[in-house]
Write a structure and sequence with these properties.
single chain, 89 residues, alpha+beta, two-stranded antiparallel ribbon, 2 helices, 4 strands
Length: 89
């Protein structure tokens, strides 16, 4: 039963990220809702990844996380929805 709660939480969080990203893209050009698309990137650039050269093997590391205001709002809404659903299950 615990895995069911975890699966629902993961689904809601992923849905919140996707909906937030779509919302930010749709409102980027609107002057009164443009603040929803404000955000930043954190991590090691994927354009110039960190390179580990071991003479025989080269390994490149890169990870970048991009988040905006709309995604944060949608993630908070998803967590609130999960709390409501968890009590009913």
């Amino acid at each position: 039963m615990k895995w069911k709660h975890n699966l629902i939480l993961i689904f809601l969080l992923l849905a919140g990220v996707v909906v937030g990203s779509l919302l930010a893209s749709a409102t980027a050009g609107m002057p009164f809702l443009g603040w929803l698309s404000y955000g930043g990137r954190v991590g090691i650039s994927t354009q110039e990844p960190m390179l580990l050269d071991l003479a025989v093997l080269q390994v490149a590391f890169g990870f970048q996380l991009q988040i905006n205001v709309a995604q944060i709002i949608c993630i908070i809404a998803a967590i609130c929805m999960y709390k409501g659903l968890a009590n009913k299950l």
